[in-house]
Amino acid sequence: MDDEELIEAARDVQSEAYVPYSEYRVGAALETADGEVYVGCNLENANYSNSLHAEEVAVAEALKDGHREFAVVAVSSGNRDAVTPCGMCRQTLAEFCDEDFRVLCDAGEDGIREHRLGDLLPETIGPETLGK
């Protein structure tokens, strides 16, 4: 899937978001190393710390199907504000992706902003940090 199609998939899944508190819809589209795409949207809970983020939901769906290698993720909010994954989602992605992993952010009319995971989360916590 090309970058524009991934952004569109992230936009499309926003309609499934459950966001009664923030009203801030986020969608993510995660492409596996072999080209399959998994989507996720944010799912809020009155106890915000129990909310699920779009990127986490997409990763979980892919993991459930046995995928462990990923090529790129696209993230889009209803505001088209080039939102990036939060720190928690960056760490989740870093569990499976290297520092060159591509993160595409939907900037609406301003296009797509591309980042590398290593730039968004330098010196990540990994197996070597834990002595593994």
Can I get a quick summary?
By secondary structure, the chain is α+β, with helices and mostly antiparallel strands. The chain has helices at 3-13, 54-64, 87-94, 117-120; strands spanning 26-32, 37-41, 70-77, 102-106, 112-116.
Structure description:
The protein is α+β, with helices and mostly antiparallel strands and 132 residues long. The protein has a single domain (3-120), classed as 3-Layer(aba) Sandwich (Cytidine Deaminase, domain 2). Helix content is 26%, strand content 23%. It has four helices and five strands, in the order H-E-E-H-E-H-E-E-H. It has helices at 3-13, 54-64, 87-94, 117-120, and strands spanning 26-32, 37-41, 70-77, 102-106, 112-116. A five-stranded mixed sheet has the order 2-1-3-4-5. A hairpin with a 4-residue loop joins strand 1 and strand 2. It is globular. The termini are far apart. GO terms for molecular function: cytidine deaminase activity; identical protein binding; metal ion binding.
Tell me the span between the first and last alpha carbons: 35 Å
Major sheet details: 5 strands, mixed
> Could you spell the SSE succession in H and E letters?
HEEHEHEEH
Proper CATH architecture: 3-Layer(aba) Sandwich
Radius of gyration: 14 Å
How many H/I helical runs? Answer: 4
Determine the CATH topology.
Cytidine Deaminase, domain 2
Helix content: 25-40%
Q: Tell me, rounded to a whole number, the average pLDDT.
A: 96
Unreliable residue stretches: none
Kindly state the number of beta strands. 5
